[in-house]
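Key result, reporting period 2: structure in, sequence out.
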Protein backbone atom coordinates (compact mmCIF):
# COMPACT_ATOMS: atom_id res chain seq x y z
CA UNK A 1 0.00 0.00 0.00
CA UNK A 2 2.67 2.41 -1.09
CA UNK A 3 1.72 5.29 -3.40
CA UNK A 4 1.12 3.05 -6.43
CA UNK A 5 -1.06 0.57 -4.54
CA UNK A 6 -2.99 3.28 -2.72
CA UNK A 7 -3.71 5.21 -5.95
CA UNK A 8 -4.76 2.04 -7.77
CA UNK A 9 -7.05 1.04 -4.89
CA UNK A 10 -8.73 4.45 -4.87
CA UNK A 11 -9.23 4.54 -8.64
CA UNK A 12 -10.64 1.01 -8.82
CA UNK A 13 -12.97 1.65 -5.89
CA UNK A 14 -14.27 4.86 -7.46
CA UNK A 15 -15.01 2.83 -10.59
CA UNK A 16 -17.22 0.51 -8.55
CA UNK A 17 -14.94 -2.47 -7.97
CA UNK A 18 -14.53 -4.33 -4.69
CA UNK A 19 -10.89 -3.99 -3.63
CA UNK A 20 -8.68 -5.54 -0.97
CA UNK A 21 -5.37 -3.74 -0.39
CA UNK A 22 -2.78 -5.26 1.96
CA UNK A 23 0.63 -4.32 3.27
CA UNK A 24 3.02 -6.22 5.51
CA UNK A 25 3.85 -2.97 7.34
CA UNK A 26 1.35 -1.45 9.72
CA UNK A 27 2.30 2.16 8.95
CA UNK A 28 3.92 4.25 6.25
CA UNK A 29 7.68 4.69 6.13
CA UNK A 30 8.41 7.89 8.06
CA UNK A 31 11.39 9.02 5.96
CA UNK A 32 11.36 10.64 2.51
CA UNK A 33 12.19 8.49 -0.50
CA UNK A 34 10.54 10.02 -3.56
CA UNK A 35 10.85 13.81 -3.62
CA UNK A 36 9.55 14.88 -7.05
CA UNK A 37 6.24 14.62 -8.87
CA UNK A 38 4.65 16.35 -11.84
CA UNK A 39 1.39 17.75 -13.18
CA UNK A 40 0.23 14.38 -14.55
CA UNK A 41 0.33 13.00 -11.03
CA UNK A 42 -1.45 16.02 -9.57
CA UNK A 43 -4.19 15.44 -12.14
CA UNK A 44 -4.53 11.85 -10.89
CA UNK A 45 -4.73 13.17 -7.32
CA UNK A 46 -7.47 15.49 -8.56
CA UNK A 47 -9.35 12.47 -9.90
CA UNK A 48 -9.06 10.78 -6.53
CA UNK A 49 -10.14 13.97 -4.77
CA UNK A 50 -7.07 14.78 -2.64
CA UNK A 51 -5.44 17.83 -4.28
CA UNK A 52 -6.51 20.22 -1.52
CA UNK A 53 -5.29 17.81 1.14
CA UNK A 54 -1.82 17.36 -0.44
CA UNK A 55 -1.22 21.04 -1.26
CA UNK A 56 0.48 21.80 2.11
CA UNK A 57 3.14 19.20 1.31
CA UNK A 58 3.85 20.21 -2.31
CA UNK A 59 5.88 23.10 -3.76
CA UNK A 60 7.12 24.10 -7.24
CA UNK A 61 10.43 22.54 -8.29
CA UNK A 62 13.17 25.16 -8.68
CA UNK A 63 15.38 25.27 -11.76
CA UNK A 64 18.10 22.61 -11.83
CA UNK A 65 21.47 24.04 -12.89
CA UNK A 66 24.22 21.73 -14.16
CA UNK A 67 27.80 22.75 -13.43
CA UNK A 68 30.79 21.30 -15.28
CA UNK A 69 34.36 20.37 -14.48
CA UNK A 70 35.52 23.97 -14.09
CA UNK A 71 32.43 25.06 -12.19
CA UNK A 72 30.80 26.73 -15.18
CA UNK A 73 27.08 26.45 -15.98
CA UNK A 74 26.64 23.92 -18.80
CA UNK A 75 22.91 23.10 -18.74
CA UNK A 76 19.67 24.14 -17.02
CA UNK A 77 16.37 22.32 -16.64
CA UNK A 78 13.25 24.23 -15.65
CA UNK A 79 9.49 24.06 -15.51
CA UNK A 80 6.96 25.50 -17.95
CA UNK A 81 5.47 28.96 -17.35
CA UNK A 82 1.72 29.53 -16.93
CA UNK A 83 -0.85 28.94 -18.24
CA UNK A 84 -0.12 25.40 -17.15
CA UNK A 85 -1.16 22.76 -19.72
CA UNK A 86 -2.65 20.32 -17.21
CA UNK A 87 -3.85 22.85 -14.64
CA UNK A 88 -0.92 22.46 -12.23
CA UNK A 89 2.71 23.57 -12.00
CA UNK A 90 4.39 20.97 -14.27
CA UNK A 91 7.32 20.12 -11.94
CA UNK A 92 6.92 19.82 -8.18
CA UNK A 93 8.68 18.63 -5.05
CA UNK A 94 6.85 17.05 -2.13
CA UNK A 95 7.24 15.46 1.26
CA UNK A 96 6.39 11.77 0.96
CA UNK A 97 5.33 10.72 4.48
CA UNK A 98 2.46 13.22 4.91
CA UNK A 99 1.36 12.88 1.27
CA UNK A 100 1.26 9.11 1.60
CA UNK A 101 -0.78 9.49 4.77
CA UNK A 102 -3.32 11.61 2.86
CA UNK A 103 -3.54 8.87 0.23
CA UNK A 104 -4.18 6.19 2.84
CA UNK A 105 -6.77 8.28 4.63
CA UNK A 106 -8.61 8.75 1.34
CA UNK A 107 -8.58 5.03 0.59
CA UNK A 108 -9.88 4.39 4.10
CA UNK A 109 -13.00 6.45 3.37
CA UNK A 110 -14.05 4.37 0.36
CA UNK A 111 -16.75 1.87 1.28
CA UNK A 112 -15.79 -0.86 -1.21
CA UNK A 113 -12.12 -1.00 -0.18
CA UNK A 114 -10.85 -3.27 2.59
CA UNK A 115 -7.52 -2.14 4.03
CA UNK A 116 -5.54 -4.81 5.87
CA UNK A 117 -2.18 -3.85 7.33
CA UNK A 118 0.29 -6.16 8.99
CA UNK A 119 -0.69 -8.86 6.52
CA UNK A 120 2.02 -10.55 4.46
CA UNK A 121 1.33 -12.41 1.21
CA UNK A 122 2.74 -15.92 1.49
CA UNK A 123 1.40 -17.69 -1.61
CA UNK A 124 -0.76 -17.20 -4.67
CA UNK A 125 -2.21 -19.82 -7.00
CA UNK A 126 -3.96 -19.40 -10.33
CA UNK A 127 -7.31 -20.96 -11.12
CA UNK A 128 -9.31 -20.59 -14.33
CA UNK A 129 -11.51 -17.80 -13.01
CA UNK A 130 -9.69 -16.42 -9.96
CA UNK A 131 -6.45 -16.18 -7.99
CA UNK A 132 -6.23 -17.81 -4.56
CA UNK A 133 -4.06 -15.95 -2.05
CA UNK A 134 -2.72 -16.95 1.33
CA UNK A 135 -1.76 -14.25 3.83
CA UNK A 136 -0.18 -14.38 7.26
CA UNK A 137 -0.79 -11.81 10.00
CA UNK A 138 1.81 -10.51 12.43
CA UNK A 139 0.39 -12.95 14.95
CA UNK A 140 1.03 -15.84 12.58
CA UNK A 141 -2.61 -16.44 11.63
CA UNK A 142 -3.35 -17.58 8.09
CA UNK A 143 -6.00 -15.90 5.95
CA UNK A 144 -7.27 -17.09 2.55
CA UNK A 145 -8.73 -14.81 -0.11
CA UNK A 146 -9.99 -15.27 -3.66
CA UNK A 147 -9.74 -12.42 -6.15
CA UNK A 148 -10.59 -12.02 -9.83
CA UNK A 149 -7.32 -10.19 -10.40
CA UNK A 150 -4.19 -9.41 -8.38
CA UNK A 151 -1.83 -6.46 -8.87
CA UNK A 152 1.53 -6.60 -7.13
CA UNK A 153 2.58 -3.06 -6.20
CA UNK A 154 5.01 -4.54 -3.70
CA UNK A 155 8.28 -2.83 -4.51
CA UNK A 156 11.63 -3.64 -6.05
CA UNK A 157 11.91 -7.04 -4.33
CA UNK A 158 8.30 -7.88 -5.27
CA UNK A 159 7.03 -11.20 -3.90
CA UNK A 160 4.24 -11.18 -6.51
CA UNK A 161 6.68 -10.78 -9.40
CA UNK A 162 8.83 -13.62 -8.15
CA UNK A 163 5.86 -15.85 -7.34
CA UNK A 164 4.66 -15.82 -10.95
CA UNK A 165 8.17 -16.09 -12.38
CA UNK A 166 8.54 -12.69 -14.04
CA UNK A 167 12.16 -11.75 -14.69
CA UNK A 168 13.78 -8.31 -14.86
CA UNK A 169 15.75 -6.97 -17.81
CA UNK A 170 18.87 -4.94 -17.00
CA UNK A 171 18.84 -1.73 -19.03
CA UNK A 172 22.49 -1.03 -18.32
CA UNK A 173 22.82 1.41 -15.45
CA UNK A 174 24.32 0.47 -12.08
CA UNK A 175 25.97 3.07 -9.84
CA UNK A 176 26.37 3.35 -6.04
CA UNK A 177 25.17 6.65 -4.54
CA UNK A 178 24.57 8.02 -1.06
CA UNK A 179 21.28 9.86 -0.54
CA UNK A 180 21.17 12.34 2.36
CA UNK A 181 18.08 14.29 3.47
CA UNK A 182 18.57 17.21 5.84
CA UNK A 183 16.24 19.61 7.63
CA UNK A 184 17.79 23.07 7.70
CA UNK A 185 17.57 25.71 10.40
CA UNK A 186 17.42 29.44 9.57
CA UNK A 187 21.19 29.67 9.31
CA UNK A 188 21.33 26.78 6.86
CA UNK A 189 18.43 28.18 4.84
CA UNK A 190 20.26 31.48 4.39
CA UNK A 191 23.54 30.02 3.17
CA UNK A 192 22.56 27.16 0.86
CA UNK A 193 21.86 27.74 -2.87
CA UNK A 194 18.37 28.86 -3.89
CA UNK A 195 18.24 26.60 -6.96
CA UNK A 196 18.70 22.86 -7.33
CA UNK A 197 22.01 21.70 -8.80
CA UNK A 198 23.73 18.88 -10.64
CA UNK A 199 27.44 19.11 -9.93
CA UNK A 200 29.02 17.17 -12.78
CA UNK A 201 32.52 16.80 -11.34
CA UNK A 202 34.35 13.56 -12.23
CA UNK A 203 35.91 13.20 -8.77
CA UNK A 204 32.58 13.21 -6.94
CA UNK A 205 29.34 13.90 -8.90
CA UNK A 206 26.62 15.33 -6.66
CA UNK A 207 22.98 16.36 -6.83
CA UNK A 208 21.34 19.01 -4.66
CA UNK A 209 17.54 19.24 -4.61
CA UNK A 210 15.49 21.91 -2.87
CA UNK A 211 12.55 20.13 -1.28
CA UNK A 212 9.50 21.61 0.45
CA UNK A 213 10.05 24.11 3.24
CA UNK A 214 13.41 23.41 4.94
CA UNK A 215 13.96 19.96 3.39
CA UNK A 216 17.06 19.57 1.22
CA UNK A 217 18.39 16.44 -0.47
CA UNK A 218 21.97 15.64 -1.42
CA UNK A 219 22.83 12.69 -3.65
CA UNK A 220 26.56 11.95 -3.59
CA UNK A 221 28.30 9.45 -5.85
CA UNK A 222 30.22 6.76 -3.99
CA UNK A 223 33.81 6.32 -5.18
CA UNK A 224 35.48 3.02 -5.89
CA UNK A 225 36.80 1.38 -2.73
CA UNK A 226 34.44 3.22 -0.37
CA UNK A 227 32.14 1.23 1.89
CA UNK A 228 28.52 2.23 1.11
CA UNK A 229 27.26 1.16 4.55
CA UNK A 230 30.01 2.99 6.42
CA UNK A 231 29.29 6.17 4.44
CA UNK A 232 25.78 6.24 5.91
CA UNK A 233 27.11 7.12 9.36
CA UNK A 234 26.87 10.78 10.47
CA UNK A 235 30.62 10.78 11.04
CA UNK A 236 31.21 10.15 7.32
CA UNK A 237 28.20 12.03 5.96
CA UNK A 238 29.10 15.44 7.38
CA UNK A 239 32.55 15.64 5.71
CA UNK A 240 30.86 14.89 2.37
CA UNK A 241 28.48 17.83 2.91
CA UNK A 242 31.17 20.19 4.24
CA UNK A 243 31.38 22.27 1.06
CA UNK A 244 27.75 23.31 1.59
CA UNK A 245 26.90 23.04 5.27
CA UNK A 246 27.93 21.96 8.77
CA UNK A 247 26.04 20.33 11.65
CA UNK A 248 25.29 23.86 12.87
CA UNK A 249 23.09 24.42 9.79
CA UNK A 250 20.59 21.61 10.25
CA UNK A 251 19.95 18.00 11.21
CA UNK A 252 20.19 14.76 9.27
CA UNK A 253 16.76 13.30 8.47
CA UNK A 254 17.81 10.26 6.46
CA UNK A 255 20.99 8.89 4.97
CA UNK A 256 20.95 5.73 2.85
CA UNK A 257 23.21 4.11 0.30
CA UNK A 258 21.61 2.87 -2.92
CA UNK A 259 22.58 1.33 -6.19
CA UNK A 260 20.87 3.40 -8.88
CA UNK A 261 19.49 0.79 -11.28
CA UNK A 262 17.73 0.72 -14.64
CA UNK A 263 15.59 -2.43 -14.60
CA UNK A 264 12.41 -3.36 -16.48
CA UNK A 265 10.13 -6.38 -16.10
CA UNK A 266 10.20 -8.66 -19.14
CA UNK A 267 6.48 -9.24 -18.60
CA UNK A 268 3.91 -7.18 -16.71
CA UNK A 269 1.14 -9.77 -16.61
CA UNK A 270 0.78 -13.51 -16.12
CA UNK A 271 -2.87 -14.43 -16.53
CA UNK A 272 -4.82 -12.75 -13.74
CA UNK A 273 -1.72 -11.40 -12.00
CA UNK A 274 -0.13 -8.07 -12.88
CA UNK A 275 2.65 -5.92 -11.45
CA UNK A 276 3.03 -2.15 -11.19
CA UNK A 277 5.37 0.46 -9.74
CA UNK A 278 8.82 -0.57 -8.54
CA UNK A 279 7.80 -4.21 -8.90
CA UNK A 280 7.78 -3.64 -12.68
CA UNK A 281 10.54 -1.07 -13.17
CA UNK A 282 13.33 0.84 -11.48
CA UNK A 283 15.10 3.84 -12.95
CA UNK A 284 17.86 6.22 -11.83
CA UNK A 285 16.46 9.24 -9.93
CA UNK A 286 17.91 12.04 -12.05
CA UNK A 287 14.48 13.34 -13.11
CA UNK A 288 12.58 12.21 -10.01
CA UNK A 289 10.24 9.96 -12.01
CA UNK A 290 10.22 6.78 -9.89
CA UNK A 291 6.98 7.35 -8.00
CA UNK A 292 5.45 9.15 -10.97
CA UNK A 293 5.94 6.09 -13.14
CA UNK A 294 4.20 3.87 -10.60
CA UNK A 295 1.20 6.19 -10.44
CA UNK A 296 1.10 6.30 -14.25
CA UNK A 297 0.95 2.51 -14.14
CA UNK A 298 -2.03 2.66 -11.78
CA UNK A 299 -3.82 5.28 -13.86
CA UNK A 300 -3.27 3.33 -17.08
CA UNK A 301 -4.40 0.03 -15.56
CA UNK A 302 -7.41 1.06 -13.47
CA UNK A 303 -9.93 1.94 -16.20
CA UNK A 304 -8.94 -1.03 -18.36
CA UNK A 305 -9.31 -3.50 -15.48
CA UNK A 306 -12.62 -1.96 -14.42
CA UNK A 307 -14.11 -2.10 -17.92
CA UNK A 308 -12.99 -5.72 -18.37
CA UNK A 309 -14.42 -6.88 -15.02
CA UNK A 310 -17.72 -5.13 -15.78
CA UNK A 311 -17.93 -6.98 -19.10
CA UNK A 312 -17.55 -3.81 -21.15
CA UNK A 313 -14.16 -4.58 -22.73
CA UNK A 314 -12.14 -7.52 -24.03
CA UNK A 315 -8.91 -9.05 -22.76
CA UNK A 316 -7.19 -7.17 -25.60
CA UNK A 317 -7.76 -3.89 -23.75
CA UNK A 318 -6.11 -5.25 -20.61
CA UNK A 319 -3.21 -6.52 -22.71
CA UNK A 320 -2.46 -2.91 -23.72
CA UNK A 321 -1.51 -2.11 -20.12
CA UNK A 322 1.75 -4.03 -20.43
CA UNK A 323 2.32 -2.91 -24.02
CA UNK A 324 1.91 0.77 -23.27
CA UNK A 325 3.57 1.05 -19.92
CA UNK A 326 6.56 -1.18 -20.72
CA UNK A 327 7.42 0.79 -23.87
CA UNK A 328 6.90 4.15 -22.12
CA UNK A 329 9.06 3.18 -19.14
CA UNK A 330 11.78 1.85 -21.46
CA UNK A 331 11.91 5.10 -23.46
CA UNK A 332 11.80 7.40 -20.43
CA UNK A 333 14.45 5.32 -18.64
CA UNK A 334 16.69 5.66 -21.71
CA UNK A 335 16.32 9.44 -21.48
CA UNK A 336 16.93 9.45 -17.72
CA UNK A 337 20.02 7.29 -18.20
CA UNK A 338 21.40 9.85 -20.65
CA UNK A 339 21.03 12.58 -18.03
CA UNK A 340 22.55 10.31 -15.39
CA UNK A 341 25.55 9.51 -17.57
CA UNK A 342 25.98 13.22 -18.28
CA UNK A 343 26.01 14.02 -14.56
CA UNK A 344 28.14 11.06 -13.48
CA UNK A 345 30.91 11.04 -16.12
CA UNK A 346 34.05 9.97 -14.22
CA UNK A 347 36.64 10.41 -16.97
CA UNK A 348 37.92 13.99 -16.76
CA UNK A 349 38.81 14.27 -20.45
CA UNK A 350 35.38 13.01 -21.46
CA UNK A 351 33.78 15.38 -18.94
CA UNK A 352 35.70 18.34 -20.39
CA UNK A 353 34.58 17.31 -23.88
CA UNK A 354 30.99 17.05 -22.61
CA UNK A 355 31.16 20.58 -21.18
CA UNK A 356 32.64 21.95 -24.39
CA UNK A 357 29.94 20.27 -26.51
CA UNK A 358 27.10 21.58 -24.34
CA UNK A 359 28.49 25.12 -24.32
CA UNK A 360 28.99 25.03 -28.08
CA UNK A 361 25.44 23.78 -28.57
CA UNK A 362 24.15 26.63 -26.37
CA UNK A 363 26.03 29.20 -28.47
CA UNK A 364 27.01 31.20 -25.40
CA UNK A 365 23.57 31.25 -23.75
CA UNK A 366 22.32 28.43 -21.53
CA UNK A 367 18.57 28.38 -22.10
CA UNK A 368 16.40 26.41 -19.66
CA UNK A 369 14.93 23.17 -20.99
CA UNK A 370 11.51 22.26 -19.53
CA UNK A 371 11.72 18.95 -17.66
CA UNK A 372 8.43 17.87 -19.20
CA UNK A 373 10.00 17.91 -22.68
CA UNK A 374 11.79 14.72 -21.64
CA UNK A 375 8.46 12.89 -21.17
CA UNK A 376 7.72 10.61 -24.17
CA UNK A 377 4.23 9.92 -25.53
CA UNK A 378 2.67 6.46 -25.71
CA UNK A 379 3.40 4.94 -29.10
CA UNK A 380 1.81 1.46 -28.91
CA UNK A 381 -1.42 0.01 -27.56
CA UNK A 382 -4.94 1.42 -27.49
CA UNK A 383 -4.26 4.28 -29.92
CA UNK A 384 -5.43 5.35 -33.35
CA UNK A 385 -3.44 3.83 -36.21
CA UNK A 386 -3.15 7.29 -37.79
CA UNK A 387 0.22 8.87 -37.06
CA UNK A 388 0.11 12.35 -35.57
CA UNK A 389 2.30 14.04 -32.91
CA UNK A 390 -0.74 14.44 -30.64
CA UNK A 391 -1.57 10.71 -30.51
CA UNK A 392 -0.38 9.15 -27.24
CA UNK A 393 0.17 12.49 -25.47
CA UNK A 394 -1.76 13.78 -22.46
CA UNK A 395 -4.67 16.03 -23.44
CA UNK A 396 -4.57 19.43 -21.69
CA UNK A 397 -6.83 20.44 -18.83
CA UNK A 398 -8.28 23.93 -19.01
CA UNK A 399 -9.55 26.13 -16.26
CA UNK A 400 -13.17 26.92 -17.14
CA UNK A 401 -16.02 29.05 -15.90
CA UNK A 402 -18.75 26.85 -14.47
CA UNK A 403 -21.80 28.18 -12.62
CA UNK A 404 -20.03 31.50 -12.18
CA UNK A 405 -16.85 30.01 -10.73
CA UNK A 406 -13.47 29.17 -12.19
CA UNK A 407 -12.70 25.47 -11.91
CA UNK A 408 -10.66 22.76 -13.62
CA UNK A 409 -12.54 20.98 -16.37
CA UNK A 410 -12.01 17.43 -15.03
CA UNK A 411 -14.10 18.39 -11.99
CA UNK A 412 -17.05 19.26 -14.25
CA UNK A 413 -16.94 16.84 -17.18
CA UNK A 414 -18.04 13.23 -16.89
CA UNK A 415 -15.26 10.64 -16.54
CA UNK A 416 -14.73 8.18 -19.38
CA UNK A 417 -14.20 8.50 -23.12
CA UNK A 418 -14.57 12.07 -24.41
CA UNK A 419 -14.67 13.60 -27.87
CA UNK A 420 -13.55 17.23 -27.81
CA UNK A 421 -14.71 19.13 -30.89
CA UNK A 422 -14.07 22.73 -31.87
CA UNK A 423 -17.52 24.32 -31.84
CA UNK A 424 -16.97 25.86 -35.28
CA UNK A 425 -16.66 22.32 -36.70
CA UNK A 426 -19.19 20.54 -34.48
CA UNK A 427 -21.55 19.75 -37.37
CA UNK A 428 -18.82 17.65 -39.02
CA UNK A 429 -18.65 15.24 -36.07
CA UNK A 430 -22.25 14.28 -35.37
CA UNK A 431 -22.36 10.56 -34.66
CA UNK A 432 -24.07 7.88 -32.64
CA UNK A 433 -21.71 5.56 -30.79
CA UNK A 434 -22.41 1.94 -31.84
CA UNK A 435 -23.85 -0.09 -28.97
CA UNK A 436 -20.75 -2.26 -28.71
CA UNK A 437 -18.47 0.72 -28.08
CA UNK A 438 -18.09 2.63 -24.81
CA UNK A 439 -20.21 5.69 -24.19
CA UNK A 440 -18.46 8.77 -25.55
CA UNK A 441 -19.27 12.23 -24.21
CA UNK A 442 -19.11 14.87 -26.94
CA UNK A 443 -17.81 18.24 -25.75
CA UNK A 444 -17.99 21.29 -27.97
CA UNK A 445 -15.12 23.64 -27.23
CA UNK A 446 -15.17 27.36 -27.86
CA UNK A 447 -13.61 30.55 -26.57
CA UNK A 448 -17.12 31.80 -25.75
CA UNK A 449 -19.64 29.79 -23.68
CA UNK A 450 -20.68 26.55 -25.40
CA UNK A 451 -24.03 24.81 -25.33
CA UNK A 452 -22.90 23.24 -22.06
CA UNK A 453 -22.18 26.65 -20.57
CA UNK A 454 -18.41 26.10 -20.52
CA UNK A 455 -15.95 28.92 -21.14
CA UNK A 456 -12.19 28.40 -21.09
CA UNK A 457 -10.22 30.81 -18.89
CA UNK A 458 -6.66 29.79 -19.76
CA UNK A 459 -6.77 29.06 -23.49
CA UNK A 460 -4.71 25.87 -23.20
CA UNK A 461 -7.21 23.65 -25.05
CA UNK A 462 -7.87 26.23 -27.78
CA UNK A 463 -4.11 26.72 -28.22
CA UNK A 464 -3.67 22.92 -28.36
CA UNK A 465 -6.16 22.59 -31.22
CA UNK A 466 -4.41 25.38 -33.12
CA UNK A 467 -0.93 23.95 -32.55
CA UNK A 468 -1.98 20.42 -33.49
CA UNK A 469 -3.93 21.66 -36.55
CA UNK A 470 -6.95 19.43 -35.84
CA UNK A 471 -10.66 20.00 -35.23
CA UNK A 472 -11.48 17.09 -32.91
CA UNK A 473 -9.75 14.73 -30.47
CA UNK A 474 -10.91 11.44 -28.95
CA UNK A 475 -9.60 11.18 -25.37
CA UNK A 476 -9.34 7.99 -23.29
CA UNK A 477 -10.47 7.81 -19.65
CA UNK A 478 -6.83 8.33 -18.55
CA UNK A 479 -6.64 11.65 -20.52
CA UNK A 480 -4.44 10.09 -23.22
CA UNK A 481 -5.17 11.19 -26.80
CA UNK A 482 -6.49 8.15 -28.72
CA UNK A 483 -6.76 9.99 -32.02
CA UNK A 484 -7.21 13.39 -33.68
CA UNK A 485 -9.40 14.26 -36.67
CA UNK A 486 -10.26 16.86 -39.26
CA UNK A 487 -13.34 15.10 -40.65
CA UNK A 488 -16.17 12.84 -39.58
CA UNK A 489 -14.79 10.10 -41.84
CA UNK A 490 -11.49 10.09 -39.94
CA UNK A 491 -13.42 9.76 -36.68
CA UNK A 492 -15.51 6.86 -38.05
CA UNK A 493 -12.36 4.98 -39.02
CA UNK A 494 -10.93 5.50 -35.54
CA UNK A 495 -14.13 4.22 -33.90
CA UNK A 496 -13.88 1.09 -36.06
CA UNK A 497 -10.43 0.46 -34.55
CA UNK A 498 -11.98 0.44 -31.08
CA UNK A 499 -13.82 -2.81 -31.89
CA UNK A 500 -10.53 -4.58 -31.10
CA UNK A 501 -11.06 -3.66 -27.45
CA UNK A 502 -14.84 -3.62 -27.09
CA UNK A 503 -17.02 -6.67 -27.89
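The corresponding designed sequence is given below.
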Amino acid sequence: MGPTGAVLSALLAQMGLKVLVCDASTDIYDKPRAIALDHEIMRVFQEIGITKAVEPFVEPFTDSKFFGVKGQLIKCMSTLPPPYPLGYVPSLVFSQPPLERVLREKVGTLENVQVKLGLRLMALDHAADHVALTFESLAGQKEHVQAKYVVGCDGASSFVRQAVGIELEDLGFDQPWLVVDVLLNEKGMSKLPKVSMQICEPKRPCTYVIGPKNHRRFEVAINEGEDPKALQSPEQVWPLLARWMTPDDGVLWRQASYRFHALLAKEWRRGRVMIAGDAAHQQPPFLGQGMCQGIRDAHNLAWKLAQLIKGQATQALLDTYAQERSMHVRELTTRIKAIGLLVAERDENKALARDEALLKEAAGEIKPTPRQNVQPPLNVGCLSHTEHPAVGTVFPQASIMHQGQETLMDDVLAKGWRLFVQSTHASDFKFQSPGSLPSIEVIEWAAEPSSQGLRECTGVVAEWFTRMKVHAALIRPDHCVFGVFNSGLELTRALDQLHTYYP
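The two ends are 33 Å apart (CA to CA). Residues 283 and 333 are 6 Å apart (CA to CA). This case is discussed further under Risks and Mitigation.
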